[in-house]
Specification:
- This protein has about 350 residues and is of the alpha/beta class.
- It has helices spanning about 1-30, 50-60, 70-80, 90-100, 175-185, 200-205, 220-225, 240-245, 275-285, 290-300, 310, 320, 340-360, and strands at about 35-40, 60-65, 85-90, 105, 130, 130-135, 135-150, 170-175, 210-215, 235, 250-255, 260-270, 305, 335.
- It has 2 domains: about 35-140 and about 265-325, 3-Layer(aba) Sandwich (D-Maltodextrin-Binding Protein, domain 2), CATH 3.40.190; about 140-265 and about 335-360, Periplasmic binding protein-like II (D-Maltodextrin-Binding Protein, domain 2, 3-Layer(aba) Sandwich), CATH 3.40.190.
- The strands form 2 sheets. Strands 1, 2, 3, 4, 7, 8, 9, 10, 11, 12, 13 and 14 form a 12-stranded mixed beta sheet that branches.
- α5 (about 175-185) packs across α13 (about 340-360).
């Protein structure tokens, strides 16, 4: 009888184990999916080491497509419905994307790291509106300029360095109309989101004719130009400057001018026609997790995290604690907000006219 009972227990145990294995396999197969992410190239979501960890943990493969401007990002969403799941959107464009039906509201209740997002970032009005979240705050930073430290005995502290005769022919500039106009607005003491004197902006941009050595459009181009000594200072993003210095060993320092800088907040959204919503939310939650952010910032270089716990876990001397955490340096920062299409078109006209002037 004991032998029969033992045999029965063995059979039952085998059946339970088989059923458990089948259940596990079924669960994994339900998660096994491919999601497509639309982002800037080299901007966090496509770190190979992180994607390997994410796929191993979830069974979800992540495929990327890239853009070089916010307008290109919006165009890709408009013209490729169903092609993307997660999209990186500057918060100044999130409401526009939502109103056009390009992204969908996100139920963040199952995302464990959302609770640690800093006040003012996690609930930012450009991401959370009409009672729903259309973007999850990810990282934030500044746009001003960075310098090749080997070219300066003393680092500049003013945005006027971009126009200084001492730097004539040695300035790099991103070919983006809104960013260019906002930097000129700062230089002329105006509100970057609602400048009142567009002619002053036009004149300031035209005054760059003798200054600009080359235009750049991607972080990779910027790094190559610095390595080749093509410019001594250039407009840039704070997180990218940190990455250029940390990951690529370039002699770079990011400058926060005394006149101020452009502040921005990037969120991660889910495309309107995504059929992989649960997988997309898992990936977004992974991106705001301190377990991803801390090694990204420490080993590679990154913008400041919207996750307060992630920033708190950085070393005391980390750029995103010593510089981005300095309230005095950030006192004059102006944060990008939504812009009326009429104003955007006016700034584009000014920038196009300015580039034509450069060629005369």
């Amino acid at each position: 009888m004991r032998a029969i009972a033992s045999t029965r227990r063995t059979i039952v145990s085998t059946l339970i184990a088989t059923a458990a294995a089948a259940t596990f396999a079924l669960a994994n197969s339900s998660l096994a999916a491919e999601i497509r992410v639309l982002n800037w190239q080299g901007y966090g979501t496509d770190e190979a080491w992180s994607l390997e960890q994410f796929e191993e943990a979830t069974g979800i493969e992540v495929v990327h497509e890239y853009f070089n401007s916010e307008q290109e990002m919006l165009t890709k969403l408009r013209t490729n419905p169903g092609a993307f799941d997660v999209v990186l959107i500057n918060s100044a464009f999130t409401r526009q994307a939502a109103e056009e039906g390009l992204i969908q509201a996100i139920d963040t209740s199952s995302m464990k790291n959302v609770a640690d997002l800093a006040p003012g970032l996690g609930d930012n009005a450009n991401l959370v509106f009409d009672g729903e979240a259309y973007g999850v705050a990810w990282v934030w930073g500044l746009t001003s300029f960075a310098v090749d430290t080997s070219a300066f005995d003393e680092l500049p502290d003013t945005i006027e360095a971009l126009w200084s005769p001492d730097n004539a022919g040695r300035v790099g500039w991103r070919d983006d109309a809104v960013e260019a106009a906002m930097l000129a607005a700062i230089a002329t003491g105006q509100d970057i989101n609602m400048p009142e004197d567009l002619e002053a902006i036009r004149e300031r941009l035209r005054a760059l004719k003798s200054q600009i050595r080359t235009f750049w459009s991607s972080e990779n181009e910027w790094n190559q130009a610095v390595a080749a000594k093509e410019f001594d200072l250039a407009t840039y993003w704070s997180g990218s400057a940190s990455r250029s210095k940390t990951n690529y060993g370039l002699p770079v320092e990011f400058i926060i001018p005394k006149e101020g800088a452009i502040g921005w907040l990037d969120g991660l959204s889910i495309a309107a026609d995504s059929e992989n919503i649960d997988e997309a939310k898992q990936f977004i939650d992974w991106m705001i997790d301190p377990d991803f952010y801390i090694p990204w910032d420490t080993n590679v270089g990154a913008p400041a995290s919207a996750n307060a716990e992630a920033n708190a876990g950085l070393p005391d001397d980390a750029f995103n604690r010593t510089v981005m955490g300095d309230s005095e340096k950030l006192a004059n920062v102006q944060v990008m907000g939504p812009m009326a299409e009429e104003l955007r078109e006016q700034l584009l006209e000014i920038w196009q006219e300015t580039k034509t002037y450069f060629q005369e």
